[in-house]
Amino acid sequence: MNIGIAILLILVAAAAGFAGGVFLTRSQVKKMMADNPPLNEDAVRMMMSSMGRKPSETQVQQVFRQIKNSAKQEVSKK
């Protein structure tokens, strides 16, 4: 009987550790993506250049801020 309880406790602890690890990792990745989006200013500049326009620095900064703000709003909705 003691062995059965020990095995059950080990399985419960492993499941709780796994669930806690998944939750913490998920929240850290969301925060990291909000703070450092994979799209940077150079990528925005290249994207605008590929569309056939020469973007000014103001336009690049404006588009980048819009992208960053929309990402933060998505995180706050969830």
Could you walk me through the main structural features you see in this protein, from its secondary elements to its overall organization?
The chain has helices at 2-35, 41-50, 57-77. The model has no long low-confidence stretch (mean pLDDT 88). With 78 residues, it is mainly α. The protein has 2 domains: 1-36; 37-78. Keywords: Cell membrane, Membrane, Transmembrane, Transmembrane helix.
Helical proportion?
over 70%
Helix-strand sequence: HHH
Classification by helices and strands: mainly alpha
Distance between the termini: 45 Å
Say how many strands there are. Answer: 0
Q: Number of helical segments?
A: 3
The major beta sheet can be summarized as: none
- State the domain count: 2
Strand content: under 5%
Low-confidence stretches: none
Membrane topology: Single-pass membrane protein
Pfam families: UPF0154 (PF03672)
Family: Belongs to the UPF0154 family.
Protein name: UPF0154 protein BG261_02175
Which tags fit this structure?
78 residues; 0% strand; single chain
Brief digest:
This is UPF0154 protein BG261_02175. This protein is mostly helical.
Q: Helix and strand layout, with pairings?
A:
Elements (H helix, E strand, L loop, with lengths): L1 H34 L5 H10 L6 H21 L1
Helix pairs in contact: 1-3, 2-3
